[in-house]
Amino acid sequence: MEHHRLTERQDRILRHIQDAGFATIDSMAESFGVSAQTVRRDLIALERSDYLIRFHGGAGPGRNMVRLGHAEKSTAAQDGKTRIAQAVAKMIPEGAAVYLDVGSTVEAVARALTQHRHLRIVTPGAAVAMIFATARQIDVFLTGGSLRGANGALVGEHAKETLRRFRFDHMVTSFGGFSPEGEPMDFDPEKAILRRIALENSLQRIGVVDASKFHRHALAKMHDGVGFTDLVTDAPPPEQVVAAMARSQTRITVVEAPQIESR
């Protein structure tokens, strides 16, 4: 991995992407008063150090970008993901066929499911699969594919073909953010394709997202026609998300932190 000292403009680019979740080359060129080619050169240099991932026409956060402004995600975010995971685990009965996607929130769901019996889990996530390594009454199948990202995500044609052969009782997936109209969106088109296949092949389709994603704009559409049956989150969503979920007849479950009474 190649690291280098950031220029002032590169630092501004990273802050811009951190705030927006995804940014186009043209918008950054206009914001910073430089050419698109100059921005493109900066993006190439930043991608070499894993600060971002380049997509067609723009870029999103990479492994080394501190997406929430801290070296690690806050305790509050972890607590929210735990509450989300516990709520989702109650939706999934023992003996079910379940698709689990990748990401820290889905990993929390996986941990909450380890006490279930006779689950059949399919996942494109090596990190998710390893959570069940000692769960003897749960069968786990990895899709295979090309390794993509620090969380052990598997993508590519092999993963797609594998997923098309399954039908699931339940699927659980996270995603990168929302469109300005409140529709679920993702940063990585390759992962978004796998998520769409799983959506099409699942009866109960559960999206999990913590409140930090409500105002993050991503690149790729999560679905074409077949949307979530459920959205589970840790705070009340903004109006545009509520409206979009109503249009797709998606149930919203909010698992807020318990109130502590002051004495």
Automatic annotation (TrEMBL):
Keywords: DNA-binding, Plasmid, Repressor, Transcription, Transcription regulation. Transmembrane segments: none annotated. Residues 6-61 form the HTH deoR-type domain. InterPro entries: Carb_Metab_HTH_regulators, DeoR-like_C, DeoR_HTH, NagB/RpiA_transferase-like, Tscrpt_reg_HTH_DeoR_CS, WH-like_DNA-bd_sf, WH_DNA-bd_sf. Pfam families: DeoRC, HTH_DeoR. The keyword Protein transport does not apply. PANTHER family: GLYCEROL-3-PHOSPHATE REGULON REPRESSOR (PTHR30363:SF4), HTH-TYPE TRANSCRIPTIONAL REGULATOR SRLR-RELATED (PTHR30363). This is DeoR/GlpR transcriptional regulator. The lineage of its organism: Bacteria, Pseudomonadati, Pseudomonadota, Alphaproteobacteria, Rhodobacterales.
